Amino acid sequence: MILVNNPGNWGKIYAPLKHAPWNGCTPTDLVFPFFLFIVGVSIAYALESSKHHPDTHKAVLIRIVRRGLTLFALGMFLALFPKFDFDTVRIPGVLQRIGVVFIIAAILFLKTDRKTQIWTIATLLVGYWALMMFIPVPGIGQANLQPTTNLAAWLDNLLLSEHLWKQSKVWDPEGILSTLPAVATALTGVLVGQWLKKPTAPGDKIAWLMVWGVICVCLGLIWDLHFPINKILWTSSYVLYTSGLAMLGLGLCYWLIDVKGYQKFTTPFLVYGVNAITVFFLSGLIPRIMGMIKVDTANGEVDSKTWLYESFYTPFLSPINASLAWALTWIAFWMVILYIMYKKNIIIKV
What we know:
mainly alpha, two-stranded antiparallel sheet, 14 helices, 2 strands, 63% helix
């Protein structure tokens, strides 16, 4: 998402680095569900010992809620900075959704068994489908999946009318109702994490990851015929499709890295991964700060980001490649900082 969120020119972006405008799924649309999926996997690893010691649950629950609220607060800070306009600040957001989903998924893992978690996933997916496809939208009419008139958009507009995504104003891609199936995405990761922790032969783990990955992808594509794959609505078909791909990706990584021992190529991913929230937060904050720093030019005053981009990128590359090169520069810039942090064992935990 550092690559996706930092083009030099938002009007000049290669198609795979764009979100699908509505229905459909691009490579960019895989990043967020993959992250929530791996959050679920990590929950199974991080809380396994606590799960079997009920006397520690109160303290663990406090830590879970504190961590989730911290993520929510970081997202709110990004939304507020630099104007701090509380009257129109966007309340939903990526970090906010991660925080809420983490709290719910972690509590469900801690307090329920695997069977209950499976039923919870099924209930969330089928229930969300039923709500979106069959419940009439108040003041609008029959159920529909159009951007501004679906049930999720109605609820967002009802409860958060002045605090939604400014590009849409009447709905939000991280809205209230669509957070329910996002919880299901994390719970699929919780199930996979529990499977990986079993004392089973690595070959069996990989085989079943691949099998279930293919099954989920196929189910998602079948459901897509009736309930389209859509990231903004986080449809049930999108959950199955992206969770299936996440299982396939994790199975491939497990085979290459843990079983076959190919680990040298993983360093850049590890460097980014151990401070993922930190780099996501700072990569959103620093461009805002750069926008506040003004530079005088022959054509008037511009912000420092624009000056750098127009001075060192647009004169030498085509518009779309200049935009991509700027984003790649951000990747390299953060790689240097994160690598230094990694070598010094500096890991900022939320």
